[in-house]
Specification:
The complex is a heterodimer. Chain A is of the alpha/beta class. Chain A contains 13 helices and 15 strands. In chain A, the strands form two sheets. Chain A has an eight-stranded mixed β-sheet. Chain B is α+β, with helices and mostly antiparallel strands. In chain B, 40% of the residues lie in helices and 13% in strands. In chain B, strands 3, 6, 7, 8 and 9 form a five-stranded mixed β-sheet that branches. A four-stranded antiparallel β-sheet of chain B has the order 10-11-12-13. In chain B, a hairpin with a 5-residue loop joins strand 10 and strand 11. Chain B is globular, with a radius of gyration of 26 Å. Chain B starts with 6 loop residues before the first helix and ends with a helix. Classes of the chains: A alpha/beta, B alpha+beta.
Chain lengths: 410, 640
């Protein structure tokens, strides 16, 4: 019996999935992401070597998919080991296309904001003013969140121009456009004979683009600009010189109030880091693989905007109802798996298998236990990379520290 | 008494003129327009300026220092109608913030027919013109202050400013009015900071924009300049829209507003949750109404100016025509502003929706001008309809259907609310008519009053001067007892404790010269049992009643909180008509209570789905998320 094999590597807070598909021309391999923000046990470089090792003596991956540019999905690609791997094609979302001006604009806005936010958070942590222990921990976590959206040059170089055959390898930015400029929703590839690839996202619709753009924060951009101003000292521009300050305080403002007011002035805002994170997640490539009548959904970290567009499309909903395997989006967070998908779309009778590559990070509610429970209540069998001992056999198998599942196809 | 001691000689002037920037100095390279505002004179205005209700405290939190407060009573300054408008003198900034804030407050005083108090726990409302380095300005309920930020224009992309120029949000008239409105609304309806449905935060934002926009349009000198410059057709809305679109341009705010005003097609949609986008539809609706009324009012001027041909001459318009047209526009703006503010007294105490606001607008205006001679209400109803704003529970959009339900007149019938106890005897004293107590001092009932079983967290306390505490206690007790005796008629739940959330008289002058006195009372009930499914907020309901001077209750504006129908089941035999009607009325009330609870929970889920902060916020965020989402600092900081 032919089987599709999916191996989830234990990267911690990140994604790295190796999928093996049986085709008429032999086994073909697809790699979905390779990165981590916080390791489980092994550092990402070791995981990379583990993956390459699993590829055998002549390491080859037919398609490398980078779902989106968040660091926790790409840090692995910075490793030199990939230069030994023969790759057929690299697929990325259209927002990664260096020749697309809109994509470039969005990317630059996102990475620019990420850099500023990270720098501001660092400044605030260094200053340490008015930060209790818990606040400090939360701020540090938000700093990581912001840094996650920063550009990782080495990894991007590998994805865009590396692996064994370097620039000779074709890079495809999905969804591609047809002769009329309309997005190609489904296609096949010689690299994966017998497989139909459905591209459910990211869409180019106005609403989704608005979600992908980082918080306009013109105010924020201006603030960042004034922090870059060489005339401005670390505290910010002086509106008036101290000549205007009287010798005695004319009014009473308590210390507690002064601290609160000072805190407003900081550029960094946790909600901005979260909104930026959301925006980058919104660029996630959402692929549904159709192999021998079975459907495998890999949504990256797609959030509400993309899901909303998907669930409003009757053709997509029809396919989504047939999903047999679901890589749980965004490490099991609340808005990466809409309740509508769980309640109305996933088919109980199909005994869906799902995998979540995740771990607890600080006080974040990721993965969300309630979400996983609701899926389990609908007959979805879930494997969490951080809980290998709780695997349900025979759906899953533990191979060392890699969780594997096999699904019969054809 | 000698003539020189008489009030004719001794009295302080009634008005104080103060100069301000009328247009943002940050917008446009041409010199910003200056103008002179007139506000009520506070003769003993102290350094700051510090008045009776607001004080300007120029503290800079980023640089941790004060700036010299201005003394507006300094003869040198008085002589010139205040300091010369300038960006470089912090004392002018203090002057401007004080002047514009007081003007806003006066608009509310006038429209609401009473003098508002802004005191909280003995503190006046503070305004801090240079509070922090940041491109933001917001009202902080916590600090009971409005904080204005400052920042440098981007060197690379200065837009219309000089590169590296310091931009002060406190020099924007529109921003000052917008934030002041938030502070005042919070004073009038403090539960409007609890987002119980998708309109609540949007209403706060939209209403603040409405006040800012129309206060701006009420200055005839500004309009005169703009209209003269137009060279185009003054009957078209593009000129006024363009002015409105300058709103908040420098700070990047008002983006949603600009797009809503510019396009007729922008309608309210259930899928629009973002507060600025939603609020801007409300603003656009009111603006449409304003423009319709304005067009009607200048139609005769156009006929006169064109001799009936309707063809305006090319080139510059005749200055007389410009004067008259700008007068009409300014007057219409003021009228609409007053109408919009006056509606507040007819709003429920909690859970506001745009539909509620429409009904309040219509009812308030109807009370003052029973016949809609000027077609104002018709214009408002049409404008709201075109923007897709409909109240629930009404059978049609005809004016009669939109009025709030009146109190059942027949005493025998169930649902009748008896008269307010205005002539009640106060405890331990002789007869102390409530009306007499209140007639001469408009004040709010203190919220620190002990309730029988209060499950309300004492987060905020509005206090009044200690000397009148005792009287207010008595008023409170009388009201509470009265409300407790008539829970059914007042649509209040029979078990939950009742909190009086406000009681004040309102004085208005009708066009025929009548002095109208009304009493407005708000009761609120809270059910904290549902906090978890409501994202940390308790479920609240309440009733606003409007009564005339003789105590007769006119209108009852209810948000039912009862979700269980405990009336015993109908008997087998035929019930008497009144009993059947009462039962049906109660069932409707319970249905409404259930619907509100359901909708509030659904709103929480909808907001959760799109909230990027939810996974990362931590336990405290999750348990209080609805409360934390209503955060002016964040709402105003995102450049929307």
């Amino acid at each position: 019996m032919k089987q599709v094999t999916i191996r989830m590597y234990n990267v911690g807070f990140g994604d790295c999935f190796l999928v093996t598909v049986p085709t008429s021309k032999g086994a073909r391999r697809i790699l979905f992401d390779c990165g981590s923000m916080a390791k489980a046990e092994k550092p990402i470089s070791e995981i990379v070597d583990q993956v390459v090792g699993d590829l055998g003596t002549k390491p080859r991956i037919d398609v490398v998919v980078c779902s989106h540019r968040h660091r926790d999905h790409i840090t692995g690609f910075a490793s030199e080991s990939w230069n030994d791997v023969d790759v057929g094609e690299v697929w990325m979302p259209w927002t990664e296309d260096p020749d697309d001006p809109e994509a470039t604009r969005i990317r630059e806005a996102q990475t620019g904001l990420a850099a500023t936010l990270t720098r501001d958070a660092d400044a605030r942590l260094a200053a340490g003013v008015g930060l209790g222990a818990q606040e400090r921990a939360e701020l540090a976590a938000f700093r990581e969140l912001a840094a996650n959206s920063q550009v990782l040059e080495d990894a991007m170089e590998m994805l865009h121009g590396g692996f064994k055959k370097k620039a000779a390898i074709e890079r495809r930015f999905l969804p591609e456009a047809d002769a009329h400029g309309k997005p190609i929703r489904s296609f096949t590839s010689d690299l994966l004979p017998g497989v139909v690839i459905h591209v459910l996202g990211p869409s180019k619709s106005e609403e989704v683009i608005r979600d992908i753009e980082p918080p306009k924060g013109k105010s924020y951009q201006q603030l960042a600009a004034s922090m870059d101003d060489p005339d401005v000292d670390d505290a910010g521009p002086e509106p008036f010189s101290s000549d205007w300050t009287p010798t005695e305080d004319p009014f009473e403002v308590s210390m507690a109030e002064r601290d609160k007011i000072a805190a407003y002035g900081h550029g960094f805002r946790s909600w901005m880091a979260a909104a930026l994170d959301d925006a980058v997640n919104g660029t996630s490539l959402v692929l549904l693989l159709e192999v021998g009548g079975k459907y495998f959904l890999f949504p990256g970290d797609a959030q509400w905007g993309t899901w909303d567009a998907m669930l409003r499309d009757p053709a997509w909903v029809k396919l989504l109802k047939r999903v047999n395997f679901y890589k749980i989006g965004h490490h099991g967070s609340h808005n990466a798996t809409p309740i509508e998908f769980v309640e109305s779309t996933l088919d109980k009778g199909l005994n869906v298998v799902a995998m979540a590559s995740t771990r607890k990070f600080g006080s974040w509610h990721v993965p969300l236990p309630k979400l996983l429970d609701e899926m389990t209540a609908r007959n979805v069998r879930i494997a969490r990379s951080d809980k290998p001992k709780e695997l349900k056999k025979p759906a899953f198998k533990l191979d060392g520290d890699v969780i594997e599942t096999r699904i019969d196809v054809g | 008494m000698k003539r020189i001691e008489s009030s004719y000689v001794q009295a302080a002037p009634v008005r104080r003129p103060l100069r301000i920037f009328a247009t943002d100095p940050m917008v446009g390279t041409s010199a910003p327009r200056r103008m002179t505002l007139e506000i009520n004179n506070e003769p003993s205005l102290a350094h700051g300026p510090a008045g009776e209700r607001i004080e300007v405290v120029d503290y800079d939190g980023t640089h941790k220092r004060f700036y010299q407060p201005v003394n507006l009573n300094d003869p040198a300054i008085l002589m010139q109608n205040g300091l010369e408008p300038t960006e470089s003198d912090p004392r002018f900034h203090q002057q401007m913030v004080y002047a514009v804030a007081m003007k806003t407050l006066e608009n509310f005083d006038t429209a609401l027919g009473r003098r508002l108090t802004l005191t909280k726990r003995g503190r006046k409302l503070r305004l801090m013109p240079h509070a922090f380095h940041g491109a933001n300005a917001f009202f902080s309920p916590d600090l009971h202050a409005i904080l204005f930020g400052y920042f440098r224009a981007d060197r690379a992309n200065p837009g219309q400013n000089l590169p590296g120029q310091t931009i002060f949000t406190c020099l924007s008239h529109d921003i000052i009015v917008h934030e002041m409105t938030h502070a005042i609304v919070h004073r009038l309806r403090r539960y409007f900071l609890e987002p119980s449905n998708k309109d609540v935060i949007a209403f706060h934002e939209g209403f603040a924009d409405i006040v800012a926009l129309f206060q701006h349009f009420s200055y005839r000198e500004l309009l005169r300049d703009e209209i003269q410059k137009v060279q185009g057709d003054i009957r078209r809305d593009s000129m006024l829209v363009r002015m409105a679109q300058q709103f908040g341009e420098a700070t990047g705010r008002g983006r949603a507003l600009r797009s809503a005003l510019g396009k007729e097609k922008v309608r309210l949609d259930d899928s629009i949750l973002e507060p600025h986008r939603r609020g801007s539809v409300l603003v656009a609706a009111v603006f449409d109404a304003f423009f319709a009324i304005y067009q009607r009012r200048i139609s005769d001027l156009i006929r006169i100016a064109t001799g009936g041909t309707g063809n305006l001459p090319q080139g510059d318009l005749h200055p007389d025509l410009v004067n008259r047209v700008s007068d009409e526009a300014a007057r219409t703006a003021q009228t609409l502003l007053t109408m919009c503010i006056r509606a507040f007294d007819y709003l429920p105490p909690v859970d506001i929706t745009f539909g509620d606001y429409l009904r309040a607008l219509i009812t308030a205006d109807y009370e003052l001008f029973p016949s809609d001679d000027l077609g104002r209400r018709a214009a408002v109803i049409a404008a709201f309809r075109n923007r897709g704003i409909y109240p629930g529970n009404v059978s049609s959009l005809a004016e009669e259907s939109l009025l709030w339900p009146e109190n059942e007149g027949d005493e025998e019938k169930p649902g009748h609310i008896p008269d307010l106890p205005l002539l009640q005897e106060a405890e331990g004293r002789g007869p102390a008519p409530l009306m007499q107590e209140l007639f001469f001092s408009a004040r709010e009932v203190s919220r620190e009053m002990p309730t029988r079983k209060s499950n309300r967290p004492a987060r905020e306390e509005w206090t009044v001067e200690p000397s009148v505490d005792e009287k207010d206690q008595q008023i409170y007790r009388i009201l509470n007892k009265w409300a407790g005796e008539h829970r059914d008629a007042l649509r209040l739940d029979k078990d939950l404790p009742i909190e009086p959330a406000g009681f004040h008289p309102v004085y208005r002058v009708a066009p025929d010269g009548r002095l109208l006195i009304e009493f407005v009372v708000q009761f609120v009930q809270t059910n904290a049992a549902h906090k978890e499914k409501l994202g940390g907020l308790p479920f609240r309901g309440g009733t606003t009643i409007v009564a005339s001077a003789d105590g007769r209750v006119r209108y009852v504006i209810a948000k039912p909180i009862t979700t269980e129908d405990e009336t015993p089941a109908a008997e087998e035999m035929e019930e008497a008509e009144p009993v059947r009607t009462a039962r049906a009325a109660r069932q409707r009330l319970v249905q409404e209570g259930k619907r509100r609870l359901r909708d509030q929970a659904a709103y929480v889920a909808a907001v959760d789905a799109v909230d990027p902060l939810l996974p990362y916020g931590g336990d405290d965020y999750v348990s209080r998320r609805m409360e934390l989402r209503m955060n002016f600092a964040a709402l105003h900081g995102d450049g929307e």
